[in-house]
């Protein structure tokens, strides 16, 4: 019978891998340095994750904390809250890490599957709020909710990775207003 895995070692290795990714990106990630930083033998690391890609997939899996979301009866507030939270999470992550993960996801199907799974829950939450906004008559109902989600979230990545402009709460509110229209005075 095999010994159960030590969760403390897993945690140390994943924390070391995250630190190495922050410093050198995906391409610069060294299994040797991860093992050294975590204080474990390379064999321990390779027994758990046979390749660099699998280690990164495990790390991405630990990052799958969904944006906290409690739906309300106000789709505008819900959408603004979600888009603002996504923008804040992106702004708090090193741009080079996001760029490296996007590139690795394009090259390695396992990393790509993990990155897509990371966003699946968030995408589903935003899509549900957009559908609620359509039912409330706030959004044109002839546009698929998934397309509207792309219009809300895509610009965050464009701004982060291409223009370098800041991802502020004001920008997130502007994106929501661009889809829902300006908020009417009450």
Helix content: over 70%
Mean pLDDT: 84
Structural class designation: mainly alpha
First and last CA, distance: 67 Å
Task: Give a quick rundown of the structure.
Helix content is 73%, strand content 0%.
Name a few traits of the molecule.
single chain, 186 residues, mainly alpha, elongated
Overview of this structure, please?
With 186 residues, the protein is an all-alpha fold. Helices cover 73% and strands 0% of the residues. It has helices spanning 7-28, 31-38, 42-48, 52-62, 75-91, 95-107, 109-135, 145-163, 169-180. Helix 5 (75-91) packs antiparallel against helix 7 and helix 7 crosses helix 8 (145-163). The longest helix has 27 residues, at 109-135. It is elongated. The mean pLDDT is 84.
List the helices and strands and how they pair.
Blueprint: H1 7-28, H2 31-38, H3 42-48, H4 52-62, H5 75-91, H6 95-107, H7 109-135, H8 145-163, H9 169-180
Helix pairs in contact: 1-2, 1-4, 1-6, 4-7, 5-7, 5-8, 5-9, 6-7, 7-8, 8-9
């Amino acid at each position: 019978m095999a010994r159960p895995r030590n969760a403390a070692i897993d945690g140390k290795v994943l924390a070391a891998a995250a630190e190495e990714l922050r410093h050198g990106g995906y391409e610069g990630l060294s299994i040797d340095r991860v093992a050294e930083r975590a204080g474990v033998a390379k064999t321990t690391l390779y027994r758990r994750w046979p390749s660099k890609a699998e280690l990164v997939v495990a790390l991405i899996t630990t990052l799958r904390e969904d944006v906290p979301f409690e739906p309300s009866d106000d789709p505008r507030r819900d959408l603004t809250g979600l888009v603002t939270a996504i923008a804040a999470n992106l702004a708090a992550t090193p741009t080079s890490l996001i760029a490296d993960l996007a590139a690795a996801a394009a090259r390695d199907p396992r990393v790509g599957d993990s990155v897509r799974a990371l966003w699946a829950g968030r995408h589903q939450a935003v899509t549900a709020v957009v559908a609620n906004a359509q039912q409330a008559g706030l959004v044109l109902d002839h546009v698929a909710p998934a397309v509207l989600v792309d219009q809300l979230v895509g610009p965050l990545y464009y701004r982060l990775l291409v223009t370098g402009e800041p991802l502020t709460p004001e920008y997130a509110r502007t994106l929501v207003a661009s889809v829902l229209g300006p908020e009417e005075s009450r």
